[in-house]
Write a structure and sequence with these properties.
Blueprint (H helix, E strand, L loop, with lengths): L1 H9 L3 E5 L3 H7 L8 E5 L4 E5 L4 H7 L4 E4 L5 H8 L2 H15 L4 E5 L4 H8 L3 E5 L2 H7 L3 H26 L6 H14 L2 E2 L4 E4 L17 E6 L2 E2 L8 E6 L4 H20 L6 H14 L15 E3 L6 E5 L11 E4 L2 E4 L3 E4 L2 E5 L4 E3 L7 E2 L4
Length: 367
């Protein structure tokens, strides 16, 4: 187990993870808004500390070997003595670690400061990158299937939007966003901050868009499944009216996307993919300088978060079978606007699979 290997490497006794965020639910297979702690010991200890009201559900749903409630460990008595819920819980946590003869404890970098200071009174404490971030990068078969189902729903919903635009029914950026997000919601996916951007505003990659749809519409949607918690991610640029500059940019971006996808398989360095995308766009005459051109990374992992490991950009990142990543080259010029195309890709041993198979070049006129 990667956590135990990390403990051995750091010569530590326990890794402590507090609830809040997807790493905790991934590690324990248990979701709750309550304050809880997950303790992993170098000796194989696997302990979940939580409120009594969550005990029954945790026993049914979580994957943790040992589960104990704060109440059974003396929470009420400690609360009367210490007059502080946080201090009472901190004391229980310290007692459990001492019971395990801990001398050094690892915590993730986002661990609450109050609790970190309390632990430092009793143990050597070191903040480390959460090991579950790396574990989450390679998806299990069941995770891949959840993401695949999200992609199917996403493509059906996007296709409805595209057909509505083709029908020439009046729409603006705001109504396009609302239409797409409602379609996704009806099928169990929640999409927030969906980008439906047009005109020169689209030169900002994260501009949500507003008002009239001009010569093109950039649609970037990244919905989360309400039941499973997993995301999907997808972008298309739709040409509405003839604009030679936008059309030329889009064709270059599509070619760059194809080049990147052709390289993806286990063992490939994501940095090499990113450099190939940059070279492809440059070969079409699109330079990147002064904050214009191809101004972001080529892609990123997708799973329980819409941005997670690995990063496909200017840093080394070895791709592994089971990773799910985006490929999303784009071009952005303030006097023209921006275009981007994005697919979600499953890395396999000898090749890859496009999880969002949809036409890349979309135009409402005959090019």
């Amino acid at each position: 187990m990667a956590v135990i290997e990390l403990l051995k490497e750091k010569k530590a006794d326990f890794f402590v993870l507090q609830s809040g965020g997807v790493n905790f639910s991934y590690a324990t297979k248990f979701k709750s808004s309550s304050t809880m702690f997950y303790l992993i010991g170098v000796d194989g200890t696997d302990l979940l500390l939580l409120p009594e009201m969550e005990l029954g559900r945790a026993l049914r749903e979580s994957r943790v070997k040992e589960i104990a409630s704060f109440e059974k460990l003396g929470y009420e008595e400690k609360l009367k003595e210490l007059k502080s819920p946080r201090k009472a819980i901190a004391e229980i946590l310290v007692e459990r670690l001492k019971e395990g003869r801990a001398k050094k404890v690892l915590i993730p970098t986002d661990f609450p400061a109050f609790l970190a200071f309390e632990l430092q009174k009793h143990f050597e404490v070191e903040a480390v990158e959460n090991p579950f971030l790396k574990l989450r990068a390679v998806k299990r078969a069941d995770e891949i299937e959840k993401i695949r189902q999200n992609c199917l729903i996403l493509l059906r919903s996007f296709d409805k939007l595209y057909r509505k635009l083709r029908s020439k029914k009046p729409m603006n950026c705001d109504s396009a966003r609302s239409f797409l997000e409602k379609e996704l919601f009806f099928q169990g996916l929640i999409a927030e901050d969906t980008i439906c951007s047009s005109g020169k505003l689209s030169a900002d990659p994260h501009e949500l868009g507003k008002g009239k749809i001009e010569d093109h519409l950039l649609v970037d949607v990244f919905p989360r499944n309400l039941r499973t918690g997993y995301y999907a991610d997808f972008t298309r640029t739709i040409l509405i009216r003839k604009n030679p500059e936008i059309e030329e940019m889009l064709k270059a971006v599509i070619e760059a996307k194809k080049k990147a996808i052709s390289m993806l398989k286990e063992g490939v360095n994501g940095k090499d993919v990113h450099n190939a995308v940059k070279d492809c766009l440059k070969s079409h005459g699109f330079e990147t300088k002064a904050g214009e051109g191809f101004i972001h990374s080529t892609g990123h992992g997708v799973g329980l978060e819409v941005h997670e490991e690995p990063r496909i950009g200017d840093v080394d990142a070895e791709l592994k079978s089971g990773m799910v990543v985006t490929v999303e080259p784009g071009l952005y010029y303030r006097k023209i606007g921006g275009v981007r195309v994005e697919d979600l890709i499953l890395i396999r041993k000898n090749d890859c699979e496009v999880l969002t198979p949809y036409e890349s070049f979309l135009a409402l006129y005959n090019p």
